[in-house]
């Protein structure tokens, strides 16, 4: 995923997590952190022997936060595949919108014949959804790799909910 922090966009990946020990990669640089939630929205982070307190305050969106440290405050936004899809759909960017498979109506996920990392060709079935007593196969709109699967088999879904992201 990407995180927009102020004007900076950073690619962030969780590499490992064991208890309070977290290993992340931010823009190709690895960080080993000792992180503990001390109260709701407040975290204590140890990095290279230094202690940092970070407060995350959720704003009007579940993916936007005000981030406060002792010396600085930032606006942060999580830019995941769902957010990219919604931004693309709202801006009319059809190519980006084709990367995310959605169902136009509520239903139930019957089968997901692909997994993360699967290579798909345009026209391959990537998910099957049951809605209104009918099963619909949703196919890849382009060749690519399955980067995210937002649902599981048997999940109940909403209309226009992102289901699978292909890059």
TrEMBL record:
Pfam families listed in its UniProt record: Biotin_lipoyl
Record-annotated Lipoyl-binding domain positions: 91-167
UniProt key word Calcium: no
Key words, A-Z: Biotin
Keyword match Cell membrane: no
PANTHER family: OXALOACETATE DECARBOXYLASE ALPHA CHAIN
Name by which UniProt lists this protein: Lipoyl-binding domain-containing protein
């Amino acid at each position: 995923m990407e995180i927009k922090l102020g004007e900076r966009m950073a690619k962030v990946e969780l590499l490992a997590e064991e208890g309070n020990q977290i290993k992340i990669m931010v823009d190709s640089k690895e960080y080993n952190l000792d992180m503990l939630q001390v109260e709701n929205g407040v975290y204590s982070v140890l990095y290279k022997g230094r202690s940092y307190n970070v407060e995350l305050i959720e704003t009007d969106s579940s993916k936007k936060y005000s981030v406060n440290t002792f010396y600085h405050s930032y606006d942060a936004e999580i830019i995941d595949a769902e957010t990219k899809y919604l931004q693309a759909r709202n801006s009319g960017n059809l190519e980006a919108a084709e990367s995310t498979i959605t169902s136009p109506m509520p239903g139930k996920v019957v089968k997901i014949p692909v997994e993360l990392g699967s290579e798909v060709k345009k026209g391959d079935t990537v998910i099957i959804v049951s809605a209104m007593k009918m099963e619909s196969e949703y196919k890849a709109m382009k060749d690519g790799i399955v980067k995210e699967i937002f649902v599981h088999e048997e999940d109940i879904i909403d209309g226009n909910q992102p289901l699978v992201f292909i890059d």
